[in-house]
Amino acid sequence: MGFQKIRVGNPIVEMDGDEMTRVIWKLIKDKLIFPYLELDIKYFDLGLPHRDATNDRVTIESAEATLKYNVAIKCATITPGWTKPICIGRHAFGDQYRATDTVIKGPGKLKLVFAPSGNEGIKELEVYNFTGAGGIALSMYNTDESIRAFAEASMNFAYQKKWPLYLSTKNTILKKYDGRFKDIFQEVFDTQWNHKFKAAGIWYEHRLIDDMVAYALKSDGGYVWACKNYDGDVQSDFLAQGFGSLGLMTSVLVCPDGKTIEAEAAHGTVTRHYRVHQKGGETSTNSIASIFAWSRGLAHRAKLDGNARLLDFTEKLEAACIGTVELGKMTKDLALLVHGPKVSRSQYLNTEEFIDAVAEELRTRLSSQSKL
């Protein structure tokens, strides 16, 4: 008797991507998802050509669909002391990413002006008096509402994981800007999470960003690290490489209520491999993060829908990935970590061979269950 497909009760939002990850994405769907699941996919092509063709309207439409259906799945050396996972929470709003910057030409005074909506007077701060040829200037912002939502989401996530939570800032220098992050996080913790964290045996702590980076390097892992926007962008890549490869890093965007998520691979589109693929060459691209984007998104769908069979499938899919690597079947990036720079072709699989190996391991795990 063949495998009876698992019916997924509610839709999934799929966001397709670019280059080599787009190639991998199709292989994952064809070999690891569609043979086992009967699901309604709301498809959005977020590949660059289509984003350009729609003037980025497709990006907004996919976000609106994610809010409607709650689950989206999006396509994109070793530090021996790390024996447990580390989760970086990036505050993906404001700061440098929504800043206004300018080139200053010639002497003059740079001022920061705030005009309140009410009848209060205009607040004016002198930033710098340029006396020479000029320079550059930057103004950035964030909002209490966004910082508070980030604090609530971070603490909720840490509580679910039963891991301690750290917030890193540079409040010794940016006393008011970063100090606001520190103050709001502390307020949210004191009023909503203190007793829950104590009961769970975990804690919240603020640390300076430089101290936190040093701690991350020497720690054994097992915590959630809440970062401001830029810090999260930089430190997540440092963290991924520290665990061996960007191809091993999952990323989940979580709304403050914890209900709506978007799962994706943390890496980019692997342009260098895609150029080889376009020329008909062989590639060995690590697809683990892309597979886990599917497993984590589907697992959240399963939890929202109360679909135990789907949840079991996602656990077996992740176990099949890990089991395949543990059997010595891996892509070149991982083989280099195991065998060193002189790794031979026989010691790693190409892109499709690896997904085939995961598919075979998944079939074995699913068939052993069906025989019980």
TrEMBL record:
<feature type="site" description="Critical for catalysis">
    <location>
        <position position="97"/>
    </location>
</feature>
<dbReference type="InterPro" id="IPR004790">
    <property type="entry name" value="Isocitrate_DH_NADP"/>
</dbReference>
<keyword id="KW-0464">Manganese</keyword>
<dbReference type="Pfam" id="PF00180">
    <property type="entry name" value="Iso_dh"/>
</dbReference>
<comment type="similarity">
    <text>Belongs to the isocitrate and isopropylmalate dehydrogenases family.</text>
</comment>
<feature type="domain" description="Isopropylmalate dehydrogenase-like">
    <location>
        <begin position="11"/>
        <end position="358"/>
    </location>
</feature>
<feature type="binding site">
    <location>
        <position position="210"/>
    </location>
    <ligand>
        <name>Mn(2+)</name>
    </ligand>
</feature>
<keyword id="KW-0560">Oxidoreductase</keyword>
<feature type="site" description="Critical for catalysis">
    <location>
        <position position="170"/>
    </location>
</feature>
<dbReference type="GO" id="GO:0000287">
    <property type="term" value="F:magnesium ion binding"/>
</dbReference>
<feature type="binding site">
    <location>
        <position position="233"/>
    </location>
    <ligand>
        <name>Mn(2+)</name>
    </ligand>
</feature>
<dbReference type="GO" id="GO:0006099">
    <property type="term" value="P:tricarboxylic acid cycle"/>
</dbReference>
<dbReference type="InterPro" id="IPR019818">
    <property type="entry name" value="IsoCit/isopropylmalate_DH_CS"/>
</dbReference>
<keyword id="KW-0460">Magnesium</keyword>
<keyword id="KW-0816">Tricarboxylic acid cycle</keyword>
<keyword id="KW-0479">Metal-binding</keyword>
<dbReference type="GO" id="GO:0006102">
    <property type="term" value="P:isocitrate metabolic process"/>
</dbReference>
<dbReference type="GO" id="GO:0006739">
    <property type="term" value="P:NADP+ metabolic process"/>
</dbReference>
<dbReference type="GO" id="GO:0005739">
    <property type="term" value="C:mitochondrion"/>
</dbReference>
<dbReference type="InterPro" id="IPR024084">
    <property type="entry name" value="IsoPropMal-DH-like_dom"/>
</dbReference>
<dbReference type="GO" id="GO:0004450">
    <property type="term" value="F:isocitrate dehydrogenase (NADP+) activity"/>
</dbReference>
<protein>
    <recommendedName>
        <fullName>Isocitrate dehydrogenase [NADP]</fullName>
        <ecNumber>1.1.1.42</ecNumber>
    </recommendedName>
</protein>
<keyword id="KW-0521">NADP</keyword>
<dbReference type="GO" id="GO:0051287">
    <property type="term" value="F:NAD binding"/>
</dbReference>
